[in-house]
Design goal:
This protein is an alpha+beta fold. It has five helices and 14 strands.
């Protein structure tokens, strides 16, 4: 039976973020409870893997009822994804009280040996310094923004070919063609939705280093992906009808910038 490794995330009453191997995968906003189970085969490396949890409480210090859990665990495909089940590789379960430093940050290491993970394009990319390569990044993100605004699915698919192919290799039950079809749905506002892409303004793009500097996450000043449509509420963007976003991590592949995650 197939097994899958998940990053399990639980957050209450805190603005929090979970990372694996220095790649941010999930965030929780203030005032909400968030539970997520994310398959992470495509983020695992042979041997040492690191999970990280960062959080800022809604009220300082952490109030009664605040909770944080981050866990890396392997489950059989038919298992219930409970937080006390599966084979646990690493976990962060802080006791949140007034003595906990704010902001909170903690990490845990899982040594998975050779049986999990492989070298991925993102893990083999050279370091990309956003400050030194700001001009090239602005030009490339400007091109991506034009494609997004024009709903140019084929152009964006070409730029995201590496992660789509790697994901298909990591989870063969969902073939590449199906993943490409799902990707195209990002550019479909749906019935009644209005396509309102955010205009490109290089001065407003925030480049945040990830994966030990090998990737750059493309964000807006509100912390949302820069490649997105308009939203009335940056904390709950998907409540805006027709909202769509393309979360992109850019790196260098064969000497060129490309979406690597």
């Amino acid at each position: 039976m197939e097994t899958i490794v998940y990053l399990q995330f639980f957050s209450v009453a805190a603005r929090s973020e979970a990372r694996i191997n220095d790649i941010p995968l999930v965030r929780a906003h203030p005032g909400e409870q968030s539970t997520m189970n994310i398959p992470v085969r495509q983020y695992l490396l042979p041997g040492r893997n690191v999970i990280e949890l960062r959080a800022q409480p809604d009220a300082q210090p952490f109030a009664a009822g605040a909770a944080l859990i981050l866990r890396l665990a392997e489950f059989a495909e038919d298992d219930w994804l409970e937080f006390d089940a599966g084979q646990e590789f690493a976990a962060i379960r802080p006791v949140l009280d007034a003595a906990v430093p704010v902001p909170f940050a903690a990490g845990a290491v899982a040594d998975l040996g050779p049986g999990h993970g492989r070298p991925w394009a993102w893990s083999q990319a050279p370091v990309l310094n956003p400050s030194e390569h700001r001009g090239a990044l602005d030009a490339y993100v400007g091109q991506l923004s034009d494609m997004f605004a024009a709903r140019d699915a084929e152009g964006l698919l070409a730029q995201a070919a590496v992660p789509l192919s790697e994901d298909a290799a990591a989870y063969p039950r969902v073939p590449l063609a199906a993943r490409q079809a799902n990707f195209r749905q990002i550019l479909d506002p749906g019935p009644g939705g209005v396509w309102q892409p955010q205009p490109f303004d290089a001065r407003r793009v925030v480049y945040r280093a990830a994966a030990g500097g090998r990737l750059v996450e493309v964000l807006g000043p509100d912390g949302l992906p820069y490649l997105r449509t308009w939203t009335a509420d940056p904390l709950r963007p998907f409540e805006t009808e027709g909202y769509s976003e393309l979360r992109a991590f850019i790196g260098i592949r064969d000497g060129r910038l490309a979406i690597l995650r």
